[in-house]
Structures are given as C-alpha cells and as structure tokens.
Amino acid sequence: MSISTSAKSLVPSDPAKVMVIRDITPNITTLSVPFFRFGHIKVGGRGTLVKLQTGNVAVFSPVAFTSDVQAKLKSLGPVKYIVAPDIEHHIFVSMWAKEYPDAEVIGMEGLPEKREGDPATRGTKFAHVFSAKNKLDLKISPEFDAEFSYEYFHSHVNKELVFLHKPSRTMIEADLIFNLPATEQFSRTGLDARAGILTKIFGGIMNTRGDATWHKRFLWYGAGSKDRTGFAESAKRIKAWDYDRVIPCHGDVIETGGKATVDKITSWFTESKH
C-alpha cells in the first residue's frame, strides 16, 4: 500500500525536512507541508490531529507519516479515526490505515470506488461513507459525535466534508475555502510562498482579504455552481455553528475571526445575493 504514481509528483520528496508540526491548542496539532497544485501553484497542504477527550486521536486530511509525526502521535494517543475530507484529499490514507489497522476510515460517496480503481490505493476499508441521501442521519460514534459536528457539502465539486470541533470552537476543512498565501506551509522550503505568476494569479482569487469577491465568485460560478440550492443548504447549516478558528488545508490557519470569514465567502449562497 502506497500512494499513486500520479500523486508522487505532488508531494515533497523528503517531507520530514519541510513539515511544520505545530500545536494549535493542547489537543490540536497541525502538520503543514508544501504542496504544488498542477505542479506550479503553491497552495500548501495540511493534516490535523485532534485528541479526543477519550484519549483517542482523529486525523483529518493525513499527510506523510514521518518519524516526527509518529513520535508526536505517541505523545497524543492511538489513532481511532482517519478522515479523507474530500474526493481529492486521500493521498496518504492507505499509509495511515496500514499503521493503524483498527482505525475507522471516513470518506464520501465516490471515494472508495476511486481508490479501488488504482492498484496503489485499493484495499482500504471505509467504515463511514457520507452520501447526499444519508448525510443528515449518518453518525460516526458516541465519542466522536460528542466533540464534532459535521456537514457534507455534496454539492461542492470536490464533495467536501467540513468539521466543527466544538470544545475548541475550531472548523477543520479542506477545499471549502482557501487562505492563501501558504506561508507556514512553505516556511521550511526556502521558497517564497507568493512567488510565481500562476501562484500570484490563484492567490489573488483564493484569499480571505477584504470582501473576497473573487473567492465568492469561485464558489458561485465554479465549485458550487452545479447545485447552488444544495450548496446553500449546507452553507446555512454551518453558518449556525459556533466557532472562531478555521484550519484549512490550503493556506494559513485563521486563528481568530474564522466564522466571520467563512460567512463572508459563502454569503452569496446564504443570503441569495451575488
């Protein structure tokens, strides 16, 4: 079990040298790495570890399983949940599932089939699979559900699973919003996270500054365009959540003011304005 050949070109050759492991709270640790979309655009990648009150650990959007990550996990506790938060963020799921064979893998409709089509990723069993039909009824477990709320954006082009860690008032998400530039994720590479024409263009769209009009347009005309009604229903549900911090997979962590930021970027859906 490994990562697919096509994915190898997207991840750093020696992730241990460039990964930033940071404790966001006593129970939340981020694993930030450089990541290039389409081989050129600096968007960064991030895995998130959350230690539950039971002592078990949930990992969201797992990144490379390095010796430093392994050491960190020994100090936190056993991994019980491995979450692929969308149809694209699953590159290292097999690696983590092999290390923690008793962990429950969580994903969404279409992902198990996608992985079974690749010899490098097939064979991983998914314990929980969200779909448009079961999304309002599916439960993970008492210990997980005691600390997390979750919403499945089945109408997003990447089929997004978004989580709220209620004790820390932290949203954890993959591609719902970006917060570029990815300064922390490229901080150990010696590369400028803003450099490059394609990075500048994409970063000009996928940021949270000002009124974030281009980000709103990206969701309205792109990621959420095929089913705006369904997207709006999901956006309205997470608007009711109580949180302050946002941990995105792409770009820097929004330490405070995250709810206002997400509400702003999704406002064309929640307020029926554009």
Characterize this entry briefly.
This protein is an alpha/beta fold and 274 residues long. It has helices at residues 5-8, 15-18, 67-76, 93-99, 111-116, 142-147, 197-205, 213-223, 228-239, 258-265, 267-270, and strands at residues 20-25, 28-33, 36-37, 41-42, 45-51, 57-60, 79-83, 104-108, 128-130, 148-153, 160-165, 170-172, 245-247. It is built from 11 helices and 13 strands.
Reconstruct the topology from this structure.
Elements: H1 5-8, H2 15-18, E1 20-25, E2 28-33, E3 36-37, E4 41-42, E5 45-51, E6 57-60, H3 67-76, E7 79-83, H4 93-99, E8 104-108, H5 111-116, E9 128-130, H6 142-147, E10 148-153, E11 160-165, E12 170-172, H7 197-205, H8 213-223, H9 228-239, E13 245-247, H10 258-265, H11 267-270
Parallel strand pairs: 6-7, 7-8, 8-9, 12-13
Antiparallel strand pairs: 1-2, 2-5, 3-4, 5-6, 10-11, 11-12
Structure notes:
The chain has a single domain, classed as Ribonuclease Z/Hydroxyacylglutathione hydrolase-like (Metallo-beta-lactamase, Chain A, 4-Layer Sandwich). The longest helix is centred in the C-terminal third of the chain and has 12 residues. It has eleven helices and 13 strands. The relative contact order is 0.15. The model has no long low-confidence stretch (mean pLDDT 94). A seven-stranded mixed sheet has the order 1-2-5-6-7-8-9, with helices on one face. α5 links the parallel β8 and β9. The chain has 274 residues and is an alpha/beta fold. This is Metallo-beta-lactamase domain-containing protein. InterPro entries: DUF4336 (IPR025638), RibonucZ/Hydroxyglut_hydro (IPR036866). Pfam families: DUF4336 (PF14234). It comes from Cladophialophora yegresii CBS 114405.
